[in-house]
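re: the backbone from monday

yeah here it is again, tokenized this time
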């Protein structure tokens, strides 16, 4: 009986394997057009690709690395990660002219493959079937030709980490089907094209690490599908327009070292989960409206004034980092409401007054840094209830060590300025001390 079952199972397995292999056979596409075949060979020679990757004799697509065909035509080329022949690497150039004969090409990915030179003007006029163009990290320089605005089938345009200069052509605003536009880490100058407001299908826009200046177009606030917006490391002059507050899908927003004010982001709609940007002056209390925030990073800026007690409304916060600013006043008692907080860093400010007892109620807290402030009080015994606390730093900040003596507390790193010499004994013995 058992043997029969095994034989049956084996037969079934063989059947499955057989069907799978015939399925694969069917997937193997033949390149029907001699013109396209000639174009691939021409591309192989102009880029100096190895015959190992694209063997001369093959007439079907599956044996050429990085090539996919549909209905006998080349539909995808991925030369990302390819190496050139020795000859080909002697004088690498942006020579891809024969692509024009691949009239059904949907995707061209050369990420990381050096193509020194400029994007030729004909690119935008001839490669109109392209849906995805990835030329990231290709050592390309000079301006982007405005003709790229003709590639209206594009859904993804990745040009990051090159040496592009000049203005971002406003024609890119014609690429209405774009879902991802990544122009980061180049040397673009001028301002963000207002035409970007037309890219209604955009989910990711990254123009960080350029030399862009001028205002953030209000129209960006109309890109309702935007989930990721990175404007950091530019020289944008304006403050964040309130319109950005309407971006209800925005999860990541980064304007570090780029945006001047934070007038925006106050609307009802905005729900970024991570915000970091560089600003000065006081934080508006309306930040407390961003109740979807799980991380708020405002460290190392020039914030002044009090920490708004409204931040205590951000009940979903897991990380709150306000360190290295010039906040004055005391630690808001409302922080006691941040029940999901695992990291709280308010070190290196000018905070004074007592440590709120309520902080001892943040039961998930693992990291608490209060160091380098002017906190007047001693550490409240309530902190001893923080059973998850692993790191606690109150160097040059806390007055006493009355707290941290409870049974529960298990910090692995403690540093603080103390006045009594008995601490090491306390820590070693780990016995609850008397409450005197
Ligand atoms: C594709 O080429 C491989 C290797 O040359 C060969 O084994 C296979 O039969 C070919 N497939 C088709 C559909 O021509
Ligand atoms: C391939 O050919 C089939 C049948 O002619 C057609 O339905 C399909 O749309 C074609 N696919 C492409 C990508 O041209
Ligand atoms: C592109 O090719 C590289 C190297 O051959 C490979 O590692 C990568 O997975 C390919 N990428 C895609 C999107 O097919
Ligand atoms: C495209 O194909 C035609 C016909 O084979 C050929 O004459 C032409 O030179 C090719 N164009 C490029 C840019 O390779
Ligand atoms: C291009 O290929 C690289 C390396 O394989 C890959 O990481 C990247 O996601 C690809 N680009 C696109 C748009 O798929
Ligand atoms: C930009 O150009 C410089 C010199 O021409 C080169 O050293 C650098 O690697 C290039 N950067 C990128 C990202 O291509
Ligand atoms: C492509 O774009 C250029 C410049 O934007 C324009 O002059 C030209 O008419 C366009 N060509 C096509 C075929 O759409
Ligand atoms: C935007 O995306 C939707 C859904 O994917 C699609 O139906 C629509 O055609 C796209 N718009 C453009 C202009 O491509
Ligand atoms: C924004 O871009 C910068 C530089 O390209 C990068 O370091 C940072 O991690 C990005 N921000 C987010 C939230 O991804
Ligand atoms: C945002 O916060 C401010 C100040 O706390 C408040 O006056 C305003 O009503 C809030 N707006 C919304 C839309 O909740
Ligand atoms: C804070 O302001 C001072 C003086 O205005 C300036 O030198 C410093 O770079 C600023 N720091 C940050 C992190 O912006
Ligand atoms: C706190 O975290 C828990 C678990 O991740 C989650 O279910 C809950 O919704 C969070 N609370 C708030 C107010 O976001």
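seq for it, each position gets an aa:
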């Amino acid at each position: 009986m058992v043997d029969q079952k095994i034989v049956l199972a084996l037969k079934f397995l063989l059947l499955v394997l057989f069907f799978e292999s015939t399925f694969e056979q069917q997937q193997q596409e033949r390149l029907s057009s001699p013109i396209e075949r000639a174009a691939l060979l021409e591309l192989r020679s102009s880029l100096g690709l190895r015959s190992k990757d694209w063997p001369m004799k093959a007439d079907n697509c599956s044996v050429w690395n990085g090539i996919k065909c549909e209905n006998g035509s080349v539909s995808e080329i991925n030369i990302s990660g390819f190496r050139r022949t020795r000859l080909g690497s002697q004088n690498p150039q942006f020579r891809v002219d024969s692509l024009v004969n691949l009239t059904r090409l949907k995707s061209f990915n050369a990420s990381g493959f050096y193509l020194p030179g400029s994007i030729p003007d004909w690119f935008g006029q001839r490669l109109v079937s392209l849906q995805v163009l990835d030329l990231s990290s290709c050592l390309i320089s000079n301006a982007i030709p405005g003709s790229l605005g003709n590639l209206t089938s594009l859904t993804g345009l990745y040009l990051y980490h090159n040496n592009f200069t000049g203005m971002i052509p406003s024609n890119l605003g014609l690429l209405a089907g774009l879902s991802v536009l990544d122009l980061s880490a180049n040397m673009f100058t001028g301002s963000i094209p207002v035409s970007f407001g037309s890219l209604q299908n955009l989910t990711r826009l990254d123009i960080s690490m350029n030399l862009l200046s001028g205002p953030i177009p209000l129209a960006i606030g109309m890109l309702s599908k935007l989930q990721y917006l990175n404007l950091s490391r530019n020289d944008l002059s304006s403050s964040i327009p309130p319109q950005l507050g309407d971006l209800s899908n925005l999860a990541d927003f980064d304007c570090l070292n780029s945006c001047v004010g934070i007038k925006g982001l106050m609307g009802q709609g905005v729900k970024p989960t991570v915000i970091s940007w560089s600003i000065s002056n006081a934080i508006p209390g309306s930040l407390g409206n961003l109740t979807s925030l799980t991380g708020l990073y405002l460290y190392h800026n020039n914030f002044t004034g009090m920490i708004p007690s409204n931040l205590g409304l951000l009940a979903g916060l897991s990380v709150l980092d306000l360190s290295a600013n010039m906040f004055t006043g005391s630690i808001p008692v409302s922080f006691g409401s941040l029940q999901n907080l695992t990291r709280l860093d308010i070190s290196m400010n000018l905070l004074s007054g007592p440590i709120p007892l309520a902080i001892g109620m943040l039961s998930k807290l693992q990291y608490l840094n209060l160091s380098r402030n002017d906190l007047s009080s001693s550490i409240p015994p309530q902190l001893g209830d923080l059973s998850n606390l692993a790191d606690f730093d109150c160097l040059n900040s806390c007055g006493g060590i009355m707290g941290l003596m409870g049974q529960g507390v298990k910090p692995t790193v403690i540093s603080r300025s103390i006045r009594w010499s008995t601490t090491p004994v306390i820590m070693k013995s780990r016995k609850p001390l008397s409450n005197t």
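Residues 19-26, 261-271, 400-436 have pLDDT under 50 and may be disordered. Residues 318-431 form a domain with the Leucine-rich repeat, LRR (right-handed beta-alpha superhelix) fold (CATH 3.80.10.10).
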